[in-house]
Amino acid sequence: MGSFVNSCVRIIKADSIVLLAVAATAFGLSAVARSQGQKPAVFFAGQLSDAVELRDLALSSADAFRHVASLTMEVGPRLAGTPGDKAAVAWALSTMRELGLQNVRAEDVTVPHWERGDIEVRITMPYPQTLAATALGGSIGTPAGGIEAPVIRVADLDELSSIPAAEVAGKIVFFDRRMQASKDGADYTLTVKARREGPAKAAAKGAIAVIVRSVGTSSARLPHTGKTTYDDAIRRIPAAAISNADADMLAMQLARGEAVTVRITMDARYLEDERSANVIGEIRGASRPDEIVLLAAHLDSWDLGTGAIDNAAGVGIVLETAVQIIRSGKKPARTIRVLLAANEEFGVSGGKAYAEKYMADLHNHVVGMEADFGDGKVWRFSTLFPDDRLEVARALHAPLEPLGIEMGDNKTGNGADLSEFKKLGMPVISLGQDGADYFDYHHAASDTLDKVDPDNLRQVVAAFVTTTWLAASGDTDFGFRDPEEETKP
User: Fold this and answer.
1) Domain hosting residue 8, numbered range
2) Contact 305, 444 (CB under 8 A)
3) N or C: which end of the chain has fewer CB within 10 A?
4) How would you classify the pairing of strands 147-154 and 172-175?
5) Buried-state track 130-169, b at ≥16 Cβ within 10 A, e below 16
6) Which residues pair with 282 in a beta bridge?
7) Residue 50 domain flag
8) CB neighbour list of residue 278: distance below 8 Å, 6 or more residues apart
9) Residue that wins the pLDDT comparison between 413 and 385
10) Strand 119-125 with 261-266, pairing
11) What rounded mean pLDDT belongs to the chain?
């Protein structure tokens, strides 16, 4: 039957007479399969033909770029708790209504409000140099006069843990692990640990500040920010990122064996929490409206650039996926829900609030997808389904093959804003995008609209709309995972 599905996909571009013949054959074969005790096709030819029609229309006409341009130009940076954040919520409500989504609403979310402030990081000896730096998200500031201390270099958290506290106390710790670029961005998971945990771990050993080599792959003299997390049981210390070019220069001075001292002056600070919102819009299901196919993207961004790659691109992808279905006039059986989530960058507040609000509907969420990896073309299809639903994954992948998308595994960890429901067993699909250059711009001032490729976005929307339609157009059971079983040895 799998070969039959593939043949449907190949033949689907033929004229309408052939399509009707294929559809009739599909229903006939399905009946025969049932009579012989075989599994019927996962998707009927009608679903496949609609999905392929939507796919091909998206390739020629999808315009996710217009949403990206609108959000980055009309709103700009959208750091949680700021006026830009509030403006983004208003933009999303207005845009969804204009695009024809239904049940459009804002659902309150409390978010932190942190202010970056000014910063100066300067090598004071042996060779004075000013470093291109930015505060890590959530960092405290320094005293008004700044702090100055010798620098100790470590590659990562493991090296820090091996050094006696007496050698760290009173110093500035410099984490110096360079991230390597790749299609799937796999090195980010390893490199980002120093940014997230380094300041707290260094403070526990008596350090007075932390400098992190930017978690990014660009050699431009632009630092990359990102959230750091403190331990409430340990005093907080200032934490900054420096550009890769400046990290190279600091490492070179240290490599000469001379004492290197750095002065840091920064006035980052937390303000009172603010009210933001998740913005939700739907295409209501025609026959199974209580069953939800969830498309998520976070609405917020960091404040150095305009948040085009991260994550106006994702916002544009999920909005345009909905637009393509609305404009087609096709009516999904299930409800397609678009979630533009608040404050992913500073603690996934929106994703957590959504899970809390809709916990009673957890098992009505038949599958979830998220867009949060820039504008790169989709190159891999992965899932997190129960093992007995892998034939569904293969059937979903089949019409994506002409887009150059390979079949991945069933272990995807994708989707911060889906993470709460994912942990509880909701099936997840990952349309893995090419991130070879994503971390050149991620969380940096260079994250601007000129980095976004409209043609790439058309391919991404084509993949999203194909998968979304197949998930929403019928009654396919994606299964619900048992997280307790998955954690057993």
Assistant:
1) 2-35
2) yes
3) C
4) parallel
5) ebbbbbbbbbbbbeeebbbbebbbbeebeebeeeeeeebe
6) 102, 337
7) no
8) 106, 107, 109, 339, 340, 341, 342, 350, 353, 354
9) 385
10) antiparallel
11) 92
